[in-house]
Automatic annotation (TrEMBL):
UniProt-listed Gene3D superfamilies: 1.20.58.1910, HD-domain/PDEase-like
Domain of life per record: Bacteria
Organism ancestry: Bacteria, Bacillati, Bacillota, Bacilli, Bacillales
Protein name: Phosphohydrolase
Pfam families: HD
Molecular function in Gene Ontology: hydrolase activity
Organism the protein comes from: Mesobacillus campisalis
Amino acid sequence: MKDTLARTEEFVRAELMDESTGHDWHHIDRVRKNAKLIAQKLGVGDLFIIEMAALLHDIPDEKLNESEKQGWDKLLEHMDSLNLPEDTAAHILACIESVSFKGGRKVELKTIEAKIVQDADRLDALGAIGIARTFAYGGKKGNPIYEPEFQVRDGMSLEDYRNGQSSSVHHFYEKLFKLKDLMNTDEAREIAQQRHEYMAEFLEQFYSEWNGNA
C-alpha cells in the first residue's frame, strides 16, 4: 500500500505541477491531510481508500483537461498500472466520481469514504485558502474581481456553472457560502462554520473598501 500511495503521489505531482487555478499539488495534499484528519477523529473509514481518492480526485476534472473523457482516460490508465483488487479500485473510482460540486448537483454518497473525501475537498474551498483559490481561479478564467451589475446565479446547469457570466466575488454566493450546509460529517461542519464566518468578514471589509469607505 505504501508503494501504491508513493507511485500515486508521484503521478499526481507530475500532472498538477504547473497548475495555477488553485487545483495544484498543494490543494491535493491539503485535501489528503484533511480527509485523514476527519477519518481519524471520527474513527471510521478505510484510510487507504480515502487517501487514494483524495490524491486522485482532480485528475479527471474537465477544468484541468481538454475534456472530461481525457481526464478519466488518464485516471483509469494510472489505476490499471497499480494492479489493485477490482473491488478496491472500484471503491476509489466511485469516491472520485462523487466529489465534485458541479453547480451544486446532489449525488447520493454511498460510503463513508466518499463522504469524508468530499468534505475534505469542500473544506479547502473555504476560509483563507478558499478566498485565495477563488481569486486565482477567477483570474485564470478571465473573470473580473467584482462586477456589481452581475446577478448571483442559482439553479445552474453544469454548462452555466462552468461558462456563464460571473465574478470572483459572485462565486462566494454561487458556491462557497453554500458549502457549510452540504458537509456530510459533524467534524467537517464544525470546521466549515468557522471558515464560513471568516469569509463573511472578508467580504464585509471588501465591500467597505470597494465603496470608498477608508
